[in-house]
Write a structure and sequence with these properties.
TIM Barrel, eight-stranded parallel sheet, 8 strands, 49% helix, globular
Length: 346
């Protein structure tokens, strides 16, 4: 909490009240990585601890495969449509209590299909769990490392699923299989769906360029390693590409040593479009409110900076213009009020 301490203000007295009041958007969230631990424990055939060890502040994953093995514990309870609905109700309910107004939540389409679950029914179960005041967009998630398990029939089922809002490409981006999914992304855009791809996390800046060139996306999930390539930074800025970043996830997976060293501040100061999300909050142990507060208290960003991240997210959100305008006005008013007291806005 060095940044706030340097200004002489304890975080509880400044950061948290602002962040709690801030209308928020969660634009990079995996349903499987957000399943509540109490639901996991209730389903498990073996006793589990009261809290998952992986959520400890000092816990770090050895690599992405280690993360995937741990995450299996969380998603094992997603066995039927009822489980997806219960998980979504808990996840979305918690977001609502955090004053989140908009969420883009993805689910692993291959896993759902392997269990014989109709994809349209999974989408309906998730959306049907939304509390009042929270707009939910559902994305079907393909995986870099599951090309051989993603036949044309599954892709067609995803693209034609009623009420699906978009698609994502996640998983082990070092597999460099983006070209295999290029037709699906092109078809999605023709249908007016949202498209996004993970890149610049496990693989370097070239993976971001590949996602832009091969998949045609203008939304990158993560993108932290863009900081390594000056030409790419210039391109991202010129093209208005949005980086849906998850700093604490990057710390837990060893992409960056700590929040203070995360490139989000440098990327923001370069004028790039950035949003902040949690990725897999149940596995990493941070809520969106905590994620945002950490950026002020440990990364040196101001309250106005993190408010700007939310503005960027809502500007890109798929929601009625009147609703968006009302939220943006609320954010502006909150920042203006904070600026009225020097002790409240760094």
């Amino acid at each position: 909490m060095r940044a706030m301490a340097a200004r002489g203000h304890p975080p509880e007295a400044t950061t948290l009240p602002f962040v709690r009041a801030l209308p928020k958007a969660e634009t990079h969230l995996h349903l499987e990585g957000a399943v509540p631990w109490d639901m996991v424990r209730a389903h498990s055939a073996v006793p589990l601890p009261e809290q998952p060890p992986c959520c400890a502040d000092d816990f770090r994953f050895d690599d992405f495969d280690h993360f995937r093995r741990v995450a299996q514990t969380f998603l094992a309870c997603l066995t039927d449509l009822g489980a997806y609905g219960r998980a979504a109700a808990a996840i979305l309910g918690d977001l609502g209590r955090q004053n989140v107004r908009y969420v883009e939540i993805s689910f692993d389409v291959e896993r759902a299909a392997r269990q014989g679950l109709p994809l349209f029914a999974v989408v309906a179960a998730i959306k049907g769990a939304a509390p009042p005041g929270l707009r939910v967009c559902v994305l079907g998630g393909f995986s870099y490392h599951k090309v051989d398990r993603t036949p044309a029939g599954l892709i067609d089922a995803v693209l034609t699923a009623p009420d699906l809002d978009g698609i994502d490409l996640h998983g082990d981006e070092t597999r460099q299989s983006a070209a295999s999914f290029a037709p699906a992304f092109a078809a999605s855009r023709r249908r007016g769906l949202l498209t996004r791809a993970h890149a610049g996390e496990l693989a370097g800046p070239a993976s971001i360029a590949t996602a832009l060139d091969v998949l045609g996306v203008r939304r990158i999930a993560h993108g932290a390693r863009a900081i390594e390539d000056e030409a790419l930074l210039a391109r991202l800025g010129a093209d208005g590409v949005i980086l849906d970043m998850c700093p604490w996830s990057n710390v837990k997976l060893g992409i960056t040593p700590d929040i203070a060293a995360h490139p989000i501040r440098a990327l923001h100061e370069r004028g790039l479009k950035v949003t902040v999300s949690t990725d897999d909050p149940a596995v990493f142990g941070r809520s969106l409110t905590q994620e945002i507060a950490l950026l002020v208290d440990e990364c040196g960003l101001s309250l106005a900076d993190v408010a700007r991240f939310q503005t960027t997210a809502f500007e890109a959100a798929r929601m009625p213009a009147a609703d968006r305008d009302a939220i943006l006005a609320e954010i502006d008013a909150l920042v203006a009020a904070a600026r009225g007291g020097r002790d409240r806005l760094p």
